[in-house]
TrEMBL record:
Protein name (database record): Response regulator
Positions carrying 4-aspartylphosphate: D56
Cited Pfam families: Response_reg (PF00072)
Stored InterPro entries: 2C-system_Tx_regulators, CheY-like_superfamily, Sig_transdc_resp-reg_receiver, TPR-like_helical_dom_sf, TPR_rpt
Organism: Alteromonas oceani
């Protein structure tokens, strides 16, 4: 007996919901449920799974469909194999761009015909049947097996559309296992056939970003600025590149090209952090207040920005002397209370209580904080957001439970890497680094990532090794051993840079560092093997001779 495909419709208009449902039921092998809000769907997803979700974009006075997909994915309420279909009457480029960003399996613009809906669904079901084994492996966490299965499927004769869908899945899986070069080859091959394929454009860009290849990343982004569908997102990516290079004025310049009302939550967070880096705290608060007002009629979004503002006030308190923290802590508690009001969601309650516990930590009331952490809902973290995990890690570190703090930071790191929005990854990783430094864990965490990088290097997983060494270098930028590991990996990969680290700068940094005898010998071996090191040093010497420093 063929197993039925479980489908959920999320549409706030009762008539439209009933119409879609009636169309689907006539197709036969579908078990159809319908919901008027994302909250209703979320409650049911706690108990059962759907193979396919059909979202309307606009869902009344709540989060839109894209925001719900992102929230449900991040909290592990939907499986990696779950199909996503979007229906919308909104043809605005910003809306279509948002939908395409989350890689839906199908997008239909209203008014659509019954035939177009059924054709799209039939194709999706054909693809799902063809990819069923790979999707099963994906849900079970066996990405390598899933990739092998897709490769095998691609050897068979296929329609052009089915081949395209399987290639898209293959590239997505390769990204997941950090095989960026292979994924990039797929995206570039697709773009050679048609340079207008948005999922391939964003896939190519993501590969370049994850490989730390920022010059190519910049070039790809510059080409996207003239298209309305990709313009805002391109500015957001460019802002992320600038932020990590500490070019905060440039970051602000790019974000200023996006209207404040159109800034996503992660992009808003990035802009407030940019203001804060420039000691412009009042502007950060004003922006978050404005975003709250823009979204007052959209409960979930209003609560998100309210929590964000509460966290910002906590960061102000944290950077203030003990006797000047009172007003900021009061504001943070008040705002967190507003965001959690009338919420039955245990994750919202957990986020509120960890913010409250951290406010007690900042007030030197450790016992109050400890008492909060012992509540039952404070002990379950599998669905917690990365932001909650980082706050919780700060609390446990302050309470002397370093083991739990390290465990939560590791969880937060994994979650931060899963985010599909560039500003989300950027801000979470920045917060993670700050938490590691401010909790006094920077040295031990740097040692962990350096060790991970060495193990990955031995396995010839050089891209993953670069990511590990880069994280370690951010925590201990002046440690020669880590800088040498980063340099050697860049040389092996024949890369002139990785994210904000330039090979030439790294060579100069190591050359001017006080090296142990072991590190001196190692640097000498690298100089002998890679002549470009000496070329960098000679160029620096000539530049110095041509521009001598005048004594003062």
């Amino acid at each position: 007996m063929v197993q039925k495909i479980r489908v959920a419709i999320i549409e706030d208009n009762a008539t439209a919901r009933a119409t879609i449902r009636s169309h689907l039921i006539t197709m036969g092998n579908l078990e159809v449920a319908s919901f008027s809000t994302g909250s209703e769907l979320k409650n049911v997803l706690r108990k059962q799974h759907f193979e396919l979700l059909i979202f309307d974009f606009h869902l009344g006075q709540r989060r839109n469909g894209v925001e719900w997909v992102q929230a449900l994915r991040q909290a592990d309420f939907i499986r990696p194999s779950t199909g996503i279909i979007f229906l919308t009457a909104d043809r605005m480029p910003q809306t279509i761009g948002q939908i395409i960003d989350i890689h839906p399996d199908l997008l239909l613009l209203k008014p659509y015909t019954i035939n177009s809906l059924q054709r799209g669904l039939n194709h999706y079901l054909e693809y799902r049947e063809q990819a069923s084994k790979a999707l099963m492996y994906l849900d079970d966490g066996y990405c390598d097996r899933a990739i092998s299965q897709v490769r095998q499927q691609l050897q068979a004769p296929l329609s052009a559309r089915l081949r395209s869908d399987l290639e898209k899945l293959q590239a997505r899986l390769l990204l997941q296992v950090h095989q960026y070069t292979e994924a990039l080859d797929i995206y570039q091959r697709v773009l050679q056939q048609s340079d207008k394929v948005l999922w391939a454009q964003w896939g190519k860009l993501k590969c370049q970003f994850l490989m730390g290849n920022w010059p190519d990343c910049q070039e790809s982004l510059d080409a996207m600025l003239d298209t309305l569908l990709t313009r805002d997102k391109a500015f957001e990516w460019l802002a992320c590149l600038s932020f990590e290079q500490a070019a905060y004025e440039k970051t602000e310049y790019y974000l200023d090209h996006i209207q404040d009302s159109e800034l996503s939550l992660p992009a808003t967070r990035l802009k407030t952090m940019t203001y804060q880096k420039q000691n412009r705290v009042v502007e950060s608060i004003d922006l978050l207040q404005k975003k709250r007002e823009y979204n007052r009629s959209t409960k979930e979004r209003f609560d998100e920005f309210t929590f964000e503002l509460a966290e910002f006030y906590l960061s102000i308190a944290q950077n203030s002397p003990m006797n000047n923290r009172g007003e900021s802590l009061t504001q943070a508690r008040k705002l967190a209370g507003v965001a959690a009001r009338s919420q039955g969601d245990s994750l919202v309650r957990q986020r509120h209580d960890y913010l409250l516990a951290y406010s007690y930590v900042l007030e030197d009331q450790g016992e109050k904080a400890r008492s909060l952490t012992q509540r039952e809902h404070m002990q379950v973290f599998n669905r917690s957001s990365a932001n909650t995990l980082i706050t919780a890690a700060r609390v446990f570190s302050a309470l002397g439970n370093e083991t739990q703090a390290l465990y939560l930071l590791d969880m937060a790191k994994v979650k931060s890497e899963l985010g599909e929005m560039p500003a989300e990854q950027q801000t979470l990783q920045s917060r993670l680094i700050n938490a590691e430094k401010e909790s006094g864990l920077a040295h031990s965490r740097a040692d962990v990532f350096n060790e991970q990088g060495q193990q990955l290097f031995v396995k010839e997983a050089y891209q993953e090794a670069l990511a590990a060494f880069y994280h370690a270098l951010q925590l201990r930028p002046s440690l020669p051993a880590i800088a040498l590991n980063m340099l050697q990996t860049l040389l092996v990969e024949q890369q002139s840079s990785y994210r904000s680290v330039l090979l030439n700068d790294l060579v100069q940094q190591i050359h001017h560092s006080e090296l142990s005898e072991t590190n001196q010998q190692r640097f000498a071996r690298l100089q002998k093997k890679y002549p470009q090191i000496n070329e960098v040093l000679m160029a620096a010497t000539h530049a110095s001779a041509a521009n001598p420093v005048t004594p003062t």
